[in-house]
# Entry
Amino acid sequence: MARTASRKLVAPFPHPSGARAPQIPKEFVPRHVAVVMDGNGRWANARGLPRIEGHRAGEKSLLDVVAGAVDVGVEYVSAYAFSTENWKRSPEEVRFLMNFTHEVMQRQCDVMASWGVRIRWAGRRPKLWKSVINVLQEAEERTKDNDLCTLTMCVNYGGRAELADAAAAMARDAASGRLDPKRVNEKTVQKYLYLADLPDVDLFLRSSGEQRTSNFMLWQAAYAEMVFLDEPWPDVDRRHLWRAVEEYARRDRRYGGALDKPGVAAL
# Structure
């Protein structure tokens, strides 16, 4: 994959249905959307297919949702691609997911970069395959100058693990004299997270009917609005994201009843 920062940006491919992004005032669009891509295995089982086919089908959903984020003006998307708990799955499925993550980054990096998407990685290094770390870091380097939208691939990620790692790092710095324990506050903790500059999650989106966070972005999503989809992840596309963004805008209490004020289009 060639570096894409110098390329002219292109618009994401249109949705096959011809659907267009809703026109929502920028101040009502969530800046950061966290996505739990749940239901791949159940989608496959319902069709008599191996679980891995559900993961394969989910690739197009991720690409389409990122396209929809660019279309509607979401600046950050964090995707729960592989959790620290996923190591408990069968060795065959874990091996597939490691290889699949590598392949997806190789296939889709240039596509998303051409839209102006920056790709980043959040997660733990231990246990994660070196080939996966390499391809994620390569994608980060290739897209580091893009700033239209940032996709954070959360691979070998867990919210509790992130907080534990932050606490351990703070303890090391305190023991060495680089950090005064008496001055530790929420801003201090933020600085020790995997991506300290990642803004708080505004909208937490989960597919497949489950209504829980599953240890994703525990710190960042403390005040997020939650939207849960009944559809399994492979059946999700940008239209689901857009409806979730509309729901977020309706719930937005920062601006009171602004959506009903003259001159502001109703959603």
User: Anything to note?
Assistant: Residues 1-6, 255-267 have pLDDT under 50 and may be disordered. The first helix runs from residue 40 to 46. DSSP finds seven helices and six strands in the chain. The beta strands are 32-36, 76-83, 117-122, 149-157, 203-206, 225-228.
